[in-house]
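Feature request disguised as a bug: please show the residue count (188) next to Elongation factor P in the output. Example input:
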Amino acid sequence: MKTAQEFRAGQVMNLDGQAWVVLKSEYNKSGRNAAVCKMKLKNLITGASQEPVFKADDKLEPIILDRKEVTYSYFADPLYVFMDEEYNQVEVEKENLGDAVNYISDGMPDVCEAVFYQGKAISIELPTTIVRTVAYTEPAARGDTSGKVMKVAKLDNGYELQVAAFIEIGEAIEIDTRTGEFKGRAKA
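Example output, currently without the count:
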């Protein structure tokens, strides 16, 4: 059993005897209220969706799925196509990728894991840290050096995220795919 706050996008749980994949999970702790996890779930069999709210420490049953290493090949709307070591194609619907879709781009070198349920690919898990190039960002503002100064940067695939103020166009940066946060400059 796992607590609700341990579930991430792409993981699958047994809820009322059916398999549900987590498309999105948000942890909220506000004021004196108990911490809660708002999730967006999709039923793997029927395709129905729901957005339940769990207490952060609610116990939920995870479903163990088959996994296989794959690399991104191409996008055939609405399917993302990946290739395994034996050149078999693995197709995953865009809506099942969750936040991973923000980091998928043509020619990406990262080896991902395809997740299978009853023989069907249901999601892709990216490496914990990935390296992407900043396609555009504004120059750093002079004199704005107190505290942790962040600014918006756009990646090659159009996704925008917050980066440190010293990052410039064309720099390679490390991103934590679990949180979607900037980690630092990529080491050469």
